[in-house]
Design brief:
This protein has helices at 25-41, 43-52. By secondary structure, it is mainly alpha-helical.
């Protein structure tokens, strides 16, 4: 990662934790539902995911 930022490869990076709260269980479930609907409506999405796996 350091190299991608133009730094020496052995440069020690300190990464701060995210400043936003984690999504709730309800938000996660909603996202999974929306993704499932998208795969049903757009078969190309499911096919693209299968190519990645």
């Amino acid at each position: 990662m350091a190299n991608a930022l133009g730094l020496q490869a052995d440069y020690r990076l300190q990464i701060a934790p995210p400043s936003v709260p984690k999504p709730s269980l309800e938000q996660n479930n909603n996202i999974h539902q929306v993704i499932g609907q998208a795969k049903t409506l757009r078969p190309g999405l499911a096919a693209a995911e299968a190519n990645i796996k």
